[in-house]
Design a protein that fits this description.
Number of domains: 2
Number of helices: 12
Strand content: 15-25%
Shape: globular
Helix content: 40-55%
Length: about 325
Amino acid sequence: MLHAAARMLALTASILTVGMFGAAHVRAQDAAGFPNKPIQVIVPFPAGVGVDVVVRIIGPRLGASLGQSVVVENRPGAGGNIGHDLAARAPKDGYTLLGTASNFVANPSLYRKVNYDPLKDFVPVIGLIRTPSVLVVPADSPIKSVQELIALAKASPGKISYASGGNGSMAHFSGELFKTLAGVDMLHVPYKGAPDIMTSLLGKQTDLAFPVLVSVLPQLKAGTLRALGVTSTKRSPQLPDVPTMYEVMNPGFDIESENGMVAPAGVRPEVVAKLNAEIVKILRDPAVSGPLIANGFEVVGSTPAEFGARLKNDVAKFADIVSKSGAKVD
């Protein structure tokens, strides 16, 4: 009986081992055969805005390397939530990806209700690029430094105004975080996008703004706006003489917009790893990275685990900003 039991245990172990090997072999074959049809990338913004630009740069190259076309589908609306919801409900096969920006992690705190969880309903694929915000004033503004701005704002509560691209935009979050940490009250004037911010500043309708670097770099180079600080942990290569907020504030802060790609939760890790590896190769191509860096982006190319950690951190960071500022979108 003991010998029979031992033989059964050995047989069971053998079957399990073969089964696990077989399953691993099938998964490897599945990843090797991926993709066998076009891949769709949902972008929750209009064409030409934010993450759409980098996805359209990567898309044709990714399609060429994988042997299948990569189709970008713009599904804007509700601050990105329409595209987020659509991607969350997509089949879990790796053929639908989502291009992400800061609103992907911020909206669950900012909106009263969203139909997705950025950490539970998606798996991270890759962080693509990031860019800081920049505290800017008109070139002829009497405000010459962050310290002067804080002193003036404290002396005249609610009198200084800052422009943003709308509630929930990076410029809005940066402004609210600055107000909280500096202990000042400033008037928030929301617009519909970055072009309106520039018009407002140059027309002297508002005093300052926190646009993302890529949207304001031309004006800074032209000398029509002046930068007082960048919201990254290190100085920008494009603005080496402009200090970080850590250098000029106590406490300082960092807040950057990172664009990336995620897939619906349940997509096989082997497929995610294959997509990540191919996109990293594309981002390392100087023909791709060079123009992105020249225009104010930092090329990231993170692993799924690194991007996942970033998403988790950003969900908490934006939730804290919303909680402290009271910013909400109905």
